[in-house]
UniProtKB/TrEMBL annotation, chain A:
Coiled coil: none
Record note on cofactor: Binds 1 zinc ion per subunit.
Pfam assignment, any one: PyrI
Subunit structure: Contains catalytic and regulatory chains.
Residue ranges occupied by any Aspartate carbamoyltransferase regulatory subunit C-terminal domain in the UniProt entry: 102-149
Organism encoding this protein: Marinifilum caeruleilacunae
Record-stated family: Belongs to the PyrI family.
Protein's name according to its UniProt entry: Aspartate carbamoyltransferase regulatory chain
Keywords assigned by UniProt, alphabetized: Metal-binding, Pyrimidine biosynthesis, Zinc
UniProtKB/TrEMBL annotation, chain B:
Name of the featured protein: Aspartate carbamoyltransferase
GO molecular function, one term: aspartate carbamoyltransferase activity
Alphabetical list of SUPFAM superfamilies matching this protein: Aspartate/ornithine carbamoyltransferase (SSF53671)
Alphabetized UniProt keyword annotations: Pyrimidine biosynthesis, Transferase
EC number from the UniProt entry: 2.1.3.2
General function of this protein: Catalyzes the condensation of carbamoyl phosphate and aspartate to form carbamoyl aspartate and inorganic phosphate, the committed step in the de novo pyrimidine nucleotide biosynthesis pathway.
Species per Swiss-Prot/TrEMBL record: Marinifilum caeruleilacunae
Pfam families the UniProt entry points to: OTCace (PF00185), OTCace_N (PF02729)
Protein family (similarity comment): Belongs to the aspartate/ornithine carbamoyltransferase superfamily. ATCase family.
Amino acid sequence: MNAKKELQVSAIENGTVIDHIPAEYLFQVINILGLDTCENSVTFGNNLGSDKLGKKAIIKVADIFFEDDEINKISLIAPHAKLNIIKNYQVVEKKIVESPDKVVGIAKCMNPKCITNVEAVTTRFKVIEKTPITLKCHYCEKITDHKHIEII
Amino acid sequence: MDNKSLVSIDDYTKEEILEVLARAAEFEKNPNCNLLEGKVVASLFFEPSTRTRLSFETAISRMGGKIVGFTDSSSSSVTKGETLKDTTKMVSNYCDLVVMRHPIEGSARYASEVSDVPVINAGDGANQHPTQTMLDLYSIYKTQGTLENLNIFMVGDLKYGRTVHSLLMAMSHFNPTFHFIAPKELEIPLAYKIFMDKNNINYHEHTEFNDIINEADILYMTRVQRERFADPLEYEKVKNVYILKNDMLENTRENLRILHPLPRVNEIAVDVDTNPKAYYFEQALNGVYARQAIIAKALDL
């Protein structure tokens, strides 16, 4: 191996790198973080090789530093994501995403008879288990487990 | 959100459960009063439920209140496509309290957030039916003199029966020992076993319905509902397995009482009805007192 591996997505001067996103969820992560309407430069790569995930995605956002509760929203679909905070081309801080205690308006309740699937109600869940992430609906009180989590 | 609402049995603490039961006993002594005089209660039944509705309407009438509402959604604006949100908002402007029955799960919690007045959940699909639980608790309390340290046997459909699940949650405050008698297909869901393990509650599971019930203080029978089964063959296999007959009660405890949320089909033989241990019809009457107490609490009366 070369000491310096070629970067698959070019480096940014300042901003945030979100690494280890499961490849199939790249565009959902982009949506959740509002990067689809972001004016800053956003570069990403998908279906890159990863020892852990098989195929992963990576996003680099220039000049944006996310708040914790903002970034934790992606933990539902990218629980192993890692953040590198970049200043002057150097990694100055590393972060991991953490599961929140509550999930509002991101996930869909898996119970087809739940009011949130019948009327325009913002979904609300309590996180009752963090690994694997398990949600309890505030309305119908049914459990949505990690295999059934769908992002709205 | 109005915290006076009763949506789920978990909304009540142990102290509140005991407070409502004590109040129910007062209403049983003096059912007629004028606590609700000048008050209007909206009774919104988006699906028919004669027993629950009449019980509520009797409770309200005995307290001197007026009732507005509908008895099924075909006679409401729902048929015109109005949302639950709009119906609830509109009605809550008119009245002091909403009593709601709705087939969609979580509808009561949502209504309680939209409504300006307290909402009492009279059943939201397969989710919660807390006033049934309170009348079950009142029946247990009345017949046993306590809720503490009882042997509670639950029989029949323990998988889908919401009354079973809510009673289990409510009784967990009172150090019970549970015995669950059900076929494998209808056993108590894992989530509740985890709950009991976490809370150090004793429970035993059986598939045989036999003299094990001699240990029981309360025998809670449930109906196995055909509509719960995707496969009709599965229903045919289990529908006649757990039938309570009078001769099975011979060696049971003196204080044993048999409860059933009603309606029953064939799971309690008719010859049990005259046994002094049969309590299901009185249980239904207790529903009026329990609901009077719940209404009084919701309105701070």
